[in-house]
Each structure stands twice: as C-alpha cells, then as structure tokens.
Amino acid sequence: MQFIYLNARKLLLNNIVSSRKIPPAYYINVHMILKKVKAFSLILLAIGCYFLPASSMFIKPDKDDGLALTPPMGWNSWNIFQADINQAKIEETADAMVSSGMRDAGYNYLVIDDGWMAEQRNSDGQLCGDPQKFPLGMKSLGDYIHSKGLKFGLYECRGYLTCQKLPGSYYHEEQDMKTFAFWGVDYVKLDGCYAERNKRPSDVDLSIYSEAIKKSGRPMVLSISDFGNGSWAWGAKDFTHLWRTSYDIRPNMESIFYCANTSGGNGVIDSAFNGLWQFAGPGHWNDPDMLEVGNLTSVIQDKLHFSLWCMLAAPLMAGNDLREMPDSIRNILTAKEVIAVDQDPRGFQGYKVFDNGKQQVYNKPLSAGTTAVLLLNMDKENADVTVHWDQIGLHGSQKVRDLWKETDLGYFNNFFVAKNLPQYGNLLIKVGTPGGKMIAGPQPVPVEKYTVTRDGTTWLSDIYYLMKQGDAPVKDKNFKGKEISIAGIQYKKGLNCQTSSRIMYSLNGKADRFQAVVGIDDAYRGDAPAQFKVYNGDYFGGQVLFDSGKLGKDSAMKVDVDVKEVKYILLTVDGKNVEADWADAKVIAK
Ligand code: GAL
Predict the structure, then answer these.
(1) 58 pLDDT tier (thresholds 50, 70, 90)
(2) How far apart are the first and last CA of the chain?
C-alpha cells in the first residue's frame, strides 16, 4: 500500500497536480476512468491526502492573533449546493468571485462546506477529499483558490461524524488541523453535530482546536457552529473568531428575521441585554448564519437581509450561485457603502432602538463621528418609520446620507422619517459628521447583573440568563400571570418554562449549591409529562448534575446539587408544550 501510495504520488503529482492548465475534458476522463477502474480511486485517494511535511514551524500566537478584526467576508457552498459540490463547481465559483467583483469588494474566503471528504480516512487516519468529487485532491484545490487571490476555507465537525455523516474530527483534532494547514487552509468552519457524545464541554473542545491550529503553524480563522447553544456566554471568544447564534438559515423572510433576532434581538438571551451586541467586537463575532441574498423571492427581500446583516456586524458569507448572478444581486452584495457599515473598524454590533413588531429601527455606532441607522418595515401595509436623534445619542441638526443610493439627503433637525416604506422596504442611512467626535454606544449590562457575585442566596429569577432556547421563561409567575404552583403548593420565586426549553446561567464558580423544586405548573391543563435536567456547563458535553426522569402532573421533586467551581449551569426541560416550573430556583454561596 505504501509502495503504491509513494509511486502514485510521484507519478500523478508530477503529471497532474503540478499542472493547473488541465483542459475541462480531462476531468470528464478522470471520472470515466474512476467509474471503470475501481483501484484507481485508491491512488486518487492518496493524492487527496498528499504528504504532510516532516516538520512544521510551531507558532504560539494568543487568541489575539489579529485575524478577523472585521467580520469575515467570503462565499460558502452550503446554502446553494448543500453536499452536491465538486472540483468544477468550486473552481468556477472561484473564477466568478474574481470576475463579478466580489473578491475586490472584500469577499476573500471561499469556504467549502460539508460533503467534500471521502467516506473513510486513509490508513494513516488522515482525511481525504472525496475522490469522485475532488479528483485532484484538496491541496490542489486550495492552490487554485489561492492562485485567484482568494483564501481557502474548509468545513469539519467536532463530533465523530459531520452532519452529513462523513468523518468528523473528534480524536483527530491535531492531525486534521495539521492536514488543513498543509493543504493551505485559511479558515475552518467547525460544526457541532454529534459533539455531545465527546463528553467535553464546548470550552474544552474548542481549546483543543485552538491549540491544534497554533501547533499547525498556519493561522486559520476558526468559525464554529453550535446552533446558538450559548457560545457568547461560555466564552467562545477566547478560542474562536465567530460563532453561530441560530439554527440553520433558510431562504425565506421568516427565517431571516428569526436569525437576525438571535443576534440583534432577544431570540437567545434575556431581554435586558437587547441582543448580543455586547459580546461582539474585533476578532470575535456573533454569526446569525450565512447569507441567502440571491436565494430569496424578491430583490427587496435580498436588500433588507443584506442591510440587517451589515448592521449586525455579521460575517458576510455569500450563499448564492455566483456563476449565474444577475446584476441586481451583484449590486446588493457589492454595495460599497453598505459593506463599509459591516466592516467598520470600530466593530460595534448594531442594536435595536425601536421595535413595535411591524417596524424596526437599528443603530450601529461607527468610527469617527457617524452612526448607521436602519429603518425597516415588515408589515404588509406601507409605513413611515422614524428615528429620533436622542435614540441614537445625537441632537440638533445632523447630516444624513443614504448608503444604498450613495447620496447625501441633507441636514435634518432632531429626527428623520423614512416615508412610505413598502413591506420589507428599508432605508439605511449614515447620520453625523465624518471625522467628528466618536458617538457613544449604549452601556453594556454590568457583570453583576448576570452572574453570581454575592455570598448567601441568589434567586435565579433576579439575575439575567445568558442563553435561552425555546420561549423566554416567565420570572416569579406562571404563564397565566399567577403564582407558580406545583402539586398545590405555591412559590413566590422561580421560573416558568414552556417546554422544550434551555436556559443558561453564569455562576462564576462562586456558588456552592443549586436548589429548586421542579414539577408541572398546576395551571397546565394537559397531561403530558416533563423531564428536568441540570447540566454543569453547556449542552455539548456538559455533565448532568440532576435528572428528574419523566415527571407527571401533581408531583414535585426537590433539586439540591453541588455546584462548587461550576462556571455555567444549563437548565433544560423537555416535553410537549408543557408548562414546567423551576420553583424557588436559587444558588447558595457561603
Ligand atoms: C449544519 C450547519 C450548516 C451546514 C450543515 C452541513 O449543522 O449549521 O451551516 O454546515 O451542517 O451539514
């Protein structure tokens, strides 16, 4: 095998990999040969793996590695192609990134998502490109991408399998990052499927990857996908450059607003935070998922989606087919002054200053004297949307520029109105005087409001949770606005959750015990059971400290667990639309 591998490498690398000028017909031939001669695929597999260098220069940069100082921009294969990818599609996309002006507009990462790898690692345990899809191997593909002045991104997963059930990196972390480095990878998208089986909390898992990347000797942006399980809360910024805040985006407006609301609204955090803005900044970004611009049903929707992502300082990873992109879409994705809002070096994520469920106004303080404001209408009826200068830290007469039209609109006193916006219509403006005094942003929520800092008792309903999935818990009341009540006993404090729900609290290693009484609220009329669990850490690999099993109505169970040294706890309740209580939920510190 080793012999075949060595000779195959010599023969084929000399003749194939070194030459980039292969006529397209060659690929077709390779595919035909592959179909006919099964053994040949072994050789191609060997090429896909290539050799790793005998030694690599180890560097040990801090997480402050200077990467992703502004939100990464690029293109990713998943939203448009899913796993149906191959060498030709990727190379044509690389070409299109250049010819369409996308690269020059800042989209420099070309990221290949799930579906690129062979079903098996090779005999050395190394990952290989799928020999059918990528007959020339991943290194060769990376070379092609680099030759276009682009950077190369590749997907992996920290579980033992990827979400498409291909080989994951669990237990191969160092080896895989070394392979990636050798292939010239600049950006790793690391997924989270099956990671709960690793039995390692996310911070442990991610520290292994960040170390492995350092050891590989090649700087790589680390982008993680854990579907909004609280990366901002457990400190992903120490190990990664961007993290997902949502489940997968889909090409419809409901999904666009859901994803935007995870980062810019209260979709995944206590409403006291007004979104996740305080957890983002240069080198660490909230990621409401990749763009669907060009995949939505109208240009007005595409434009609003893009405005929102730029206001949210979101990574801008295009997800449309660049090979057949109409001008209307290219003009959106390359709109210079709109992109400049996303890429502003201050790195302040936008936040909402107004939301009545039909219209919204976002503000994003920029560098030096100006701020970006997005006014949008979600309603079917046309509407005027107003921003008052005092909502964005300004007053008096202010200069306003329309960033889509790239035209100055003049000076406006005290407020500005976007008139008669149709459904999904939006106006993106820059307010203020460029080069003027920096406009202050809002104050972040102070740490003591969302973590345990005091000795004695801290009721969880008195501090803010850092992550939620499912509906927001009701604090110190049940869903009917009455006292929490389980099996006839009433409680003044606690959380009422509609299942299924996950809530994460920071304990800061300060608390000794977590105590509560759990059960189904007496106001619930159905007969479905609920199951309560307390995790030390997050859902991925967090150790279960308490498990109630399935609890039916009219039964209460006491929880009293040791939480010494615990940084975060996750409270989960599973069941079918059951109203479940964490009555009297509190932590005790000596
Ligand atoms: C999902 C991820 C998607 C895509 C997909 C690939 O978990 O959120 O962005 O990477 O896996 O299988």
Answers:
(1) very low
(2) 64
Q: CB neighbours of 86 closer than 8 A, spacing ≥ 6?
A: 132, 133, 134
At 539, the pLDDT band (50, 70, 90 cuts) reads confident
Atom number of ligand 1 nearest to Cα 227: 8
Average pLDDT, stretch 11-34? Answer: 32
Could you give the strand order of the β-sheet that contains 151-157, starting from the edge strand earlier in sequence? 285-287, 242-244, 221-224, 187-191, 151-157, 109-112, 73-76, 316-318
Residue 312 is predicted with a pLDDT of 98
Q: Over the stretch 59-93, which tens digit does the pLDDT of each residue have?
A: 233 567 899 999 999 999 999 999 999 999 999 99
What would the pLDDT profile of 140-149 be if each residue is shown by its tens digit?
A: 999 999 999 9
User: Is the CB of 173 inside a 6 Å radius of any atom of ligand 1?
Assistant: no
Catalytic annotation present for 124: no
Q: Which of 163, 196, 249 to mutate to test the pocket of ligand 1 (most atoms within 8 A of CB)?
A: 163
CB-ligand 1 contact for 156 (6 Å cutoff): no
Q: Is 226 a catalytic residue?
A: no
CA-based nearest residue to 319, from 287, 288, 292, 289: 292
Nearest Cα residue to atom 1 of ligand 1 = 163
Q: Among the atoms of ligand 1, which is closest to the Cα of residue 79?
A: 9
Cα separation, 339 vs 20, in Å, equals 33
